[in-house]
Structures are given as structure tokens and as C-alpha cells.
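Service request form, structural biology core

Requester: graduate student, group of Dr. S.
Request type: structure prediction, single chain
Budget code: on file
Notes: please return the result as C-alpha cells.

Sequence provided:
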Amino acid sequence: MDLDVFVTAHHPEWDRLEQLLRRGRRLTGAEADELVALYQRTSTHLSQIQSSTPDPQLTARLTQLVARARATVTGTRRASWRDAARFLTAGFPAAVYRARRWWIPAALLSTALAAIIGWWIGTHPEVQSSIAAPETLRDMTRPGGEYETYYSSHPAASFAAQVWTNNAQAAAMCLVLGAFLGLPVLWVLFSNMLNLGVGIGLMSSAGRLDTFLGLVLPHGLLELTAVFVAAGTGLRLGWTVIDPGPRTRRDALAEEGRAALGMAIGLALVLFVSGLIEAFVTPSGLPTWARITIGIAAELAFLLYVYVLGDRAVREGETGDIDEPDRSAGLPTAA
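Core staff response, request fulfilled:
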């Protein structure tokens, strides 16, 4: 395509579109129809230029024109409580449900890794001595030691906020860093499982594994599930870079990335609940069985939420992505 000829032939249409956009709402019915037609033609021109003879300056101008025209044609829409309700009842559970083939294996393999690390540390005194001095280990694992007092070392409200922030950051890292082929996600998972395995190993060597599990399970079930979901989603995003499937890599990453961003918001809410349990239930005076029951109930509620609402939403065509009118145009916009 001869770019100069193409520009000469079509720049009057682009100028006319810009003129109509400047008038804003003062368009007649005929002018509004003309604006829509020019918007569609300019979108096609942008696609043709980008795919055949990309010119950065011209592409930038047409991209801006198409964006302004699209906003004028489709209008702007403010988020409402209905959008939030739809996200919580369809978008988020659908995104988690769609990623289940990634986060469930990640959960099973990670849990097995933590158990192996715990067994290895618990049955090898020389490994325990490499972690810390014997006196330090006794202070950590004794009744009233660091493992037990950790959950009551700060006021419950501030502790809940701190836990929520730390866990939300870990989940966000998994989601964001997944685009780097998923490799940083594996490191985040390993770090979490290493910490859990060390606790299992040290407390089991002191004959207090039941106490440790009684402290971890109430909040840990939901907390770790959220981390596994984030990790699985990050790994899926990383695999999309390698194999985008029938979609173009750009479109695939855009779709999965938007779903991952929405999932970050949903998982922050899930981790907020687990943080409340960790701050108010784990260190409470409730019997161990009661605290664990609360943790199991929270975990089952989340899984039912995902598998009931998520399955239904996916069957209705929900993907966890934003609505079609709110997406960017599917045309190339960068050189």
C-alpha cells in the first residue's frame, strides 16, 4: 500500500471526523449518523495502516481519533453497585473456576512439597541445627513460645490489617509476575511452602505438631487457597505467553490479564476474611476443634461459591473479563 496515496485519499474523512468530535453533543441526527460511519471507516483505516505500512505519527493520530469517536458513540458508563454485584456473583467466581486446572494441581503439589520439607526437617536433627541454635529452637517450639505467641503479639485489628496487606501483596505478585513465563510464581510458591514446612518440621520434632496445626488450619486453609488460586492464575498467564491458542498473543494476554486484574480484587476480599480469622479466631480461647471448624467452614464456603456460582457463570458464557463495550478496540494501536 502506498501510504502517501492512502493518506491523500482519506485525510478529508479524518478531518471531518475530528470536526464532528469537536462539536460534541450539538450534532444533528444526520451528523450523528455521519460520525458513526466515519468512526467505523477510520477504525478500518487504522487497522490497514498498522498491518501493512505502520507509521508511528499517523498511527498515533488515528488511534486518538478512534478512541475519542468510540467514547462519543458508545458513551461513558459509570461503575455502579450492579457492576460490583455482578463481579462478585459471576465475574470473580467464573475466573477462579476457569483457572481451576491450574490452581488445583498447584495446591496439591505445593502441599505435598510442604509435607516433604516438614518430614525432612522433623526427622533430621542435623537439618534442625542448621536452621538455628538448639536454644533458639526450644524457645520457638515450647509451650508459649514464638510459634504460639506470634498470633497474639499485636492488637487484633492491626494484626489483621498487617496480615491482609502481606498476603494480598503475595497474591498480587503471583498474578502480575505470571506474565514472566510463570517463573517468579514458582519462587513465591516455594517460599511459602518452605516457611510452612519449617514450621511443621520443627513443631513435629518437639512433639507439638497438633498444636501447630491447630494454629495454622483455622486461617491457613482459606489463606493458602487464595495464594494457590493466585499462583495458578499467574502460571496460566505465563503459559498464555508461550501458547496463546487460537487467539493472537496480544488478544490472549489482554483477555487473561484483565481477568487476572479482576481476580486480584476478588482475592483481596478472600484474604481479608482469612486475615480476620487469623487475628480474631486463631489466637482466641476457643477450643482447637472449634477454631479448626471455623476454618473448614470458611474454606468450604469459598469452594462452594466458586463451584456453584462459577460453574453456572461459565456455562452462561462468563469469562471473568470485562464487558465487551468496556474493552479497548481489538485493533492494533501501537507500532
